[in-house]
Specification:
The complex is a heterodimer of chains A (333) and B (358). Chain A is an all-alpha fold and 333 residues long. Chain A folds into two domains: 13-72, no CATH class; 92-328, MetI-like (MetI-like fold). Chain A has helices spanning 13-62, 80-83, 90-96, 99-119, 121-132, 136-147, 154-164, 171-178, 190-218, 222-231, 235-260, 267-273, 279-282, 285-295, 299-328. The longest helix of chain A has 50 residues, at 13-62. Chain B is α+β, with helices and mostly antiparallel strands. In chain B, strand 9 and strand 10 form a beta hairpin. Classes of the chains: A mainly alpha (333), B alpha+beta (358).
Chain lengths: 333, 358
């Protein structure tokens, strides 16, 4: 005969243990809630300051995600997002069988690669150069001059570029004319679009982009340079052996962010500079989405293309972040 | 090895002069400590020796060579910085090799030099680590290693221990002293800590407001301070300083008199500062002591001894007492005894030491 063990309350031991564990879980749960409540009561000012950012994220980033479902629906503005019928991956199949879309993907990657290759190092080089300027007045003036294009509207920038490359009165063709060469209508020739676009981007953004690297350089302890001076390093050696390695974590973070935006080339500037003659090299995913979605009213197809863009960017940023974390101990998260 | 010679060194930042004509001879293999309060110009003087600050006026010579316009790298000196100045992206071995690589020393020689230095400093097991993976004391050792591997003529130390905790500071202080005894390199060391100055220096240079107040061996400065500033700066707690007047028989402090021999007729009646070190004040009368009535207001036990704070007229008086005896009765009004032989007299107007007394 099996003897049943009981507790002082008369409950069998197994049941008493279960009951005690349950009570403990309740207690822990209650404690956790009390602690959380206390925490909010104590730190409510911080959460109040955080609120506008959360609202911004919800309204402009999370709420629109609801509309992403039209990428999988036969969307009709009359039926609305919820009542449009599901079509599965039909729009994605259409996209990947569309030569224009594939060309846009290819152009996006090529322009982004050029931007990364030439546009990414430009602000770093500029910041390193600013750092070498000893005269404070000259440094300030030079910085202001290179920051200015960032504050000019893309429309004006495009206007300047169109004027500069104009075959009749543009400065570029005037200079070409001095060498006895025929004028070239650069903006109608597909092979010139990418260099002009990437060059314009560098001119507009390199100065402003250098601010973050200048801030990183300012954070390098002056005693590292002094120690290097005593050790016999010249300015060139100090730049290579101290400045660049010291700002490397910042460079990597900026690179990860840049890789995350690789599918987002400057949409407005392309719209302003391209024309059917240069679609071959200039049409990118965003301009294609703009034409299909807004101009032709194919919102569902455009949403599918946008979603494709976002998924690629997400995968790229995850990969870059984990590679950076593994090899350089620097990462966004 | 080499000596360092400073002759009328002046430093100006625009119209503001921060160092007012420093004259100092540091002998070969000597360990000289520049000590003084913050902003006294000691670090600026060191940085002028290093070549990190331009010399506005005066002459600097190292090993007999005029150095004013010589680049820091060609002065053949090594500097240890307050925050260690270790390159965060390089490991210990590469940090130590930095200066040698810049000077294009052959790879094998660099390896051997680093191995030897790491052995001396106990860093052999840390050569592959980055500075962020080291403790404060280990970082400090790496910084010293980086200086040592260069085999310079002169070592410059800019408050190298001030970022360490008290225990580690004491330990590293002893290591620096041992290292100097072993290597025998001429060293100029800057600190605001008088204990570091007293324990490390062959000679101490006390600086104040951009000027040298006194130069001498630690005991010379401790026993015979040239003025009230030096008297108040060296020693822990510093020398007690009380206002008084010289009389024919000694010095009058309030209604009490300390008996001193040798006060001249011209000196009698002069306003003076009477200085006495806390450790020289006794609770019991002895030979040649004069009593001083005090009102005790605080006892700070330090273990083997206690610091006693008392009021004497308008002046504060701090003195030490052995806690092996009973100090429980030391409350309220009492009497301490001042040995005439150990009293220092300073001019009340100039603060300079006066030659008076037994």
């Amino acid at each position: 005969m099996v003897e049943e063990h009981t507790t002082a309350t008369g409950l069998p031991i197994e049941e008493a243990v279960i009951e005690a564990k349950e009570a403990q879980r309740h207690q822990v749960k209650n404690d956790r809630w009390t602690r959380l409540l206390d925490h909010f009561r104590r730190e409510w000012q911080i959460y109040a300051m955080l609120l506008p950012t959360i609202v911004w994220f919800v309204v402009f980033l999370y709420k629109p995600m609801y509309g992403l479902q039209i990428a999988f629906k036969d969307y009709s503005i009359f039926r609305g997002v919820a009542n449009s019928p599901w079509v599965g991956f039909e729009h994605f199949e259409t996209l990947f069988s569309n030569d224009q879309f594939l060309r846009a993907v290819s152009n996006t990657i090529k322009i982004s690669a050029l931007n990364l290759l030439f546009g990414f190092p430009a602000p770093i080089i500029l910041a390193l150069m600013f750092n070498e300027i000893l005269n404070a007045t000259y440094k300030r003036a030079a910085q202001t001059i290179v920051y200015l294009p960032h504050f000019i509207s893309s429309v004006i920038i495009a206007g300047i570029v169109i004027t500069a490359f104009s075959p009749t009165a543009g400065i570029v063709n005037t200079v070409i004319g001095w060498f006895g060469l025929d004028p070239v209508y650069f903006l109608t020739q597909p092979e010139w679009f990418r260099p002009i676009f990437v060059g314009t981007g560098i001119w507009q953004e390199a100065g402003f982009g250098s601010i973050v690297f200048l801030a990183a350089i300012a954070g390098v302890s002056p005693s590292l340079y002094e120690s290097a001076v005593v050790d016999g390093a010249n300015r060139w050696q100090m730049m290579w052996k101290i400045t660049i390695p010291s700002i490397l974590p910042t460079i990597l973070i900026m690179l990860i962010i840049r890789i995350g935006n690789i599918m987002e080339v400057s949409f407005e500037l392309i719209i302003l500079l391209y024309q059917p003659a240069t679609y071959e090299t200039a049409d990118v995913v965003n301009t294609w989405v703009y034409r299909q979605g807004l101009q032709s009213g194919q919102y569902d197809l455009a949403a599918a293309a946008g979603l494709f863009n976002a998924v690629v960017a997400f995968a790229l940023v995850m990969t870059a972040n984990s590679l950076s974390r593994r090899y350089s101990r620097t990462s966004l998260w | 090895m080499a000596g360092v010679s400073l002759n009328g060194i002046v430093k100006r930042y625009g119209a503001v002069q921060v160092v007012h004509g420093i004259d100092l001879e540091v002998a070969e293999k000597e360990f000289v400590v520049l000590v003084g309060p913050s902003g006294c110009g000691k670090s600026t003087t060191l940085r002028m020796i290093a070549g990190l600050e331009e010399i506005s006026e005066g002459e600097l010579a190292i090993d007999g060579r005029y150095m004013n316009r010589v680049a820091p790298k060609d002065r053949d000196l090594a500097m240890v910085f307050q925050n260690y100045a270790l390159y965060p992206h390089l490991n210990v071995a590469d940090n130590m090799a930095f200066g040698l690589r810049i000077r294009k020393m052959p790879r094998d020689q660099i390896k051997t030099t680093i191995a030897e230095t790491a052995q001396i400093l106990g860093l052999t097991n840390y050569l592959e680590r980055r500075p962020s993976d080291l403790s404060g004391g280990q970082r400090q050792r790496v910084a010293m290693g980086r200086a040592i591997v260069r085999h310079p003529k002169v070592f410059l130390f800019d408050e190298p221990l001030s970022n360490l905790d008290a225990k580690l500071r004491t330990q590293m202080r002893a290591e620096i002293k041992r290292l100097h005894n072993r290597l025998g390199v001429t060293s100029v060391y800057v600190t605001h800590d008088q204990v570091e100055a007293m324990t490390l220096a062959d000679r101490i240079v006390v600086m104040n407001d951009g000027r040298i107040e006194q130069v001498g061996t630690p005991m010379e400065l401790f026993n015979n301070p040239a003025n009230t500033f030096v008297a108040g700066f060296l020693g822990s707690p510093p020398m007690n300083q009380m206002k008084g007047k010289l009389t024919e028989n000694g010095a009058q402090i309030g209604s009490s008199e300390i008996k001193l021999n040798g006060v001249t007729a011209q000196q009698a009646g002069r306003d003076v500062i009477i200085g006495i070190r806390p450790e020289h004040v006794t609770l019991a009368p002895g030979e040649g002591t004069s009593p001083l009535p005090i009102a005790l207001d605080l006892v700070e036990p330090l273990g083997s001894e206690a610091l006693l704070h008392a009021r004497f007229g308008d002046d504060n008086l701090v003195f030490k007492a052995d806690t092996q005896g009973d100090i429980g009765h030391l409350t309220g009004v009492g009497e301490v005894h001042i040995p005439a032989l150990l009293v220092k007299i300073f001019d009340a107007d100039t603060g300079r030491a006066l030659s008076v007394g037994a």
